[in-house]
Specification:
α8 packs antiparallel against α10. By secondary structure, this protein is of the alpha+beta class. It is built from ten helices and 38 strands. The chain is 15% helix and 30% strand. It is globular and about 65 Å long. The longest helix has 28 residues. Strands 29-30-31-32-1-38 form a six-stranded antiparallel sheet, with helices on one face. A five-stranded mixed sheet has the order 27-26-22-21-37, with no helix packed on it. Strands 2-36-35-34 form a four-stranded antiparallel sheet, with no helix packed on it.
């Protein structure tokens, strides 16, 4: 199997861009394979919840454009944190906590805070809170932007995500309905719809339930007795996104590897569509499946991955709606029942009869040879976690090795729910080049190759937003850390732009601690420039393990407008009557400076500074992009996919396009011009 080349320490240092963070040792590092595609990124602020490592001090974050406040779910404190982002405009990097709203003030029986969303007009916020017993009905609590309770509504079991429709008339809640740990109670999953069009008095929730007749027959049922259980008991809604017209909502059913479509006029599900499998035997769909293979081994394998998306978002392009999913993967794993098992354990029971008909990349002879050559040993597929709930043939054998997650992001046509694009092996290949010493590390320890046998980098969350005229998808990697940025202006042909991270790796097998920076992005919030406290596009990233929120500035900085000067101050002051006119020094008269040469030198230095400040070629939930035509969009994407500086192997290039670096270059150019001018002037005086 081929091994991907690691960068040397010198090339890694050259490729990493560091920006001082907020009173901590962490630096923002950005990686790009093509300067022409690189996105300018700068970390300008940070909030620290003060929680312990791994306690969930920051999970989901929402933003209010009116007050410039952020609202953060604090699982460690069982509270909602209200933050003030106004100071970012003045360059204050530390984001302050205005108020911590404890769970006890919500006025309902609750065990946790799981999600927060803000009304589109900023009128109030909605918070999801599960019951003390997670299998009992939970609540959505509505608060004003100061954290005062306005109303509450009972919803389904384990409300795990809450959002608003774009017109603000409905609150949608994903009721995950997880079973009890001993699996004696398994509530139905559902979506609650709360109509808030007529105000917040006497609110009730309507429940959209699952019925077997709308579910594809190949959607997974995962429980101890799947044949005798309904789909309503098995389907567990994880995440919701809404199209821009508020016509449909799309619901991720993660453990079942499916997406459900909800009609927002009838408040009923119309379909539950299986996402089928990702064939890791195909070219471009490689993975590293073992943590016992002595490092980075990315190659094709006879594995079918279940996409199992967690976060998802809808966006518009060319008049069509698309869904982007972060294909994390997740198993049913409880004390009373678990589907997880190592491939080697099933092989030891002679449970596999691999069938080449299920793979595009192998013949039956090749598959049989792989098995004979130790396919199920630990350094190959033996360590990979698979499922006992996978399909079997008539003889009770598994005809494929099934894995959790796609290790990628995908784009789906919202009408048909057919896949338009998948990022393939990009995430593992990019991180293998960018951080080779910490490839597929986990989020509680800096250890190489630690998560290859599980779900790799684990893409957790995704959001879209427009930056400098292009539409970007931002995908957070929960285990490896950092955020992938892709230009998705053309949904059929996205282009990788930049991987950036403010996680600090502190040495082989070093535990994650307070010096590790921002670890494990869980929730992302895009803030367009028009709504930003700084006037620049921002991305907020809530990091669950470190309990921090990073504020990243994206794209070109807006030009600063000079303060207007009152008209009476523009004229030079009149000389005093008895004040003599100042005389010019004699040496200046004898040896005047060439008045034409000095502006020329200044112009050249200014042009150099402007050239250094030119941004690299670099585009919301529901971002709308209108290309002139599909052909033009495809041509534009193809033309920008390669840079003249790329070599044949497409080696990664450093992202040198951040504002901080540009200002440094501009300052250096101006300083050099000043030195030249000073020298010329001195020489003239001597002559």
């Amino acid at each position: 199997m081929k091994r991907w080349k690691k960068w040397t320490a010198m090339s890694l240092a050259a490729a990493s861009l560091t920006i001082p963070a907020v009173g901590h040792a962490e630096d923002l590092k950005a990686y790009s394979q093509d300067r022409g595609q690189a996105l300018q990124v700068e970390q300008i602020g940070r909030y620290d919840s003060g929680s312990g490592i791994g306690e969930g001090g920051t999970e989901i974050v929402a933003y209010d454009s009116k007050t410039k406040r952020a609202f953060s779910v604090n699982g460690a404190a069982r509270a909602l944190d209200i933050l003030d982002l106004n100071g970012l405009k003045e360059g204050n990097e530390e984001i302050p906590l205005l108020k911590r709203v404890p769970l006890e003030s919500f006025g309902v029986s609750a065990s946790d805070v799981t999600s927060v969303a803000i009304h589109p007009e900023g009128e109030y916020i909605a918070v999801a809170v599960p019951s003390e017993a997670k299998t009992d009905p939970g609540h959505v609590v509505l608060l004003d932007t100061d954290g005062n309770r306005l109303a509450s509504v009972e919803v389904g079991a384990l409300p795990d995500m809450v959002t608003f429709t774009h017109d603000g008339t409905k609150v949608l809640v994903a009721n995950e309905g997880e079973p009890s740990d001993d699996y004696t109670v398994n509530p139905e999953g559902s979506v609650s719809i709360i109509d808030v069009a007529d105000g917040l008095d006497n609110l009730t929730a309507e429940t959209a339930e699952f019925t077997d007749d709308i579910v594809d027959e190949d959607v997974r049922k995962v429980n101890p007795d799947p044949e005798n259980s309904s789909y309503a008991e098995n389907l567990e809604p994880e995440y919701i996104t809404v199209d821009k017209d508020d016509r449909f909502a799309y619901v991720a059913i993660q453990e079942s590897n499916a997406i459900a479509k909800l009609d927002l006029q009838s408040n009923r599900f119309t379909t539950v569509k299986s996402l089928v499998f990702k064939d890791f035997s195909q070219e471009g769909m490689e993975l590293d499946p073992s943590n016992k293979d002595d490092g980075i081994q990315i190659d094709n394998w006879p594995v079918l991955g279940m996409y199992m998306p967690d976060g998802m978002t809808a966006f518009e392009s060319g008049g069509k709606t698309y869904i982007i999913t972060a294909n994390e993967g997740d198993a049913q794993d409880w004390e009373g029942f678990s589907e997880e098992v190592r491939a080697a354990d099933l092989a030891a029971e002679d449970a596999f009869a691999l069938n080449a008909d299920l793979y595009e990349g192998y013949t039956q002879e090749q598959l049989d040879q792989l098995v004979q050559n130790g396919l199920f040993e630990d350094e190959q597929l033996g360590r990979l976690k698979t499922s006992i709930a996978a399909p079997k043939n008539a003889d009770g054998k598994y005809e494929a090795v099934y894995g959790y997650g796609g290790r990628s992001f995908s784009i789906w046509d919202a009408d048909s729910l057919q896949q338009v694009y998948d990022s393939g092996a990009d995430f593992e290949k990019i991180t293998a080049e960018a951080i080779p010493e910490y490839f597929n590390t986990t989020n509680d320890e800096d250890k190489l190759d630690n998560r290859s046998d599980d779900k790799g980098p684990e893409p957790e969350t995704v959001i879209t937003g427009e930056v400098d005229g292009k539409t970007y998808a931002f995908i957070g990697l929960e285990r490896t850390g950092g955020i992938m940025a892709y230009d998705v202006t053309n949904p059929a042909s996205p282009a990788f732009s930049t991987y950036f991270t403010s996680r600090n790796f502190q040495g082989d097998e070093a535990p994650v601690d307070g010096g590790s920076g921002d670890v494990a992005p869980e929730g992302l919030t895009y803030i367009p420039a028009a709504d930003s406290p700084t006037g620049q596009t921002l991305l907020l990233a809530a990091h669950e393990v470190s309990g921090t929120i990073a504020a990243y500035a994206l794209g070109e900085k807006p030009a600063e407008q000079p303060e207007p000067v009152p008209e009476e101050e523009t004229a030079p002051p009149a000389a005093e009557p008895n004040e003599p006119e100042p005389e010019e020094p004699a040496e200046e008269e004898d040896a005047p400076v060439n008045e034409e040469e000095m502006p020329q030198e200044q112009d050249e230095s200014e042009r150099e500074a402007e050239k250094a400040e030119e941004p690299a070629a670099t585009g919301t939930d529901n971002t709308t992009t209108e290309p002139a035509s599909d052909e033009e969009a495809s041509a534009e994407t193809a033309a920008s996919a390669k840079s003249d500086t790329d070599d044949e192997k497409g080696q990664p290039l450093p992202n040198t396009s951040t504002n901080a670096f540009n200002w440094m270059l501009g300052g250096a150019a101006l300083a050099a011009a000043g030195v030249i001018f000073f020298g010329i002037n001195k020489m003239r005086k001597r002559t």
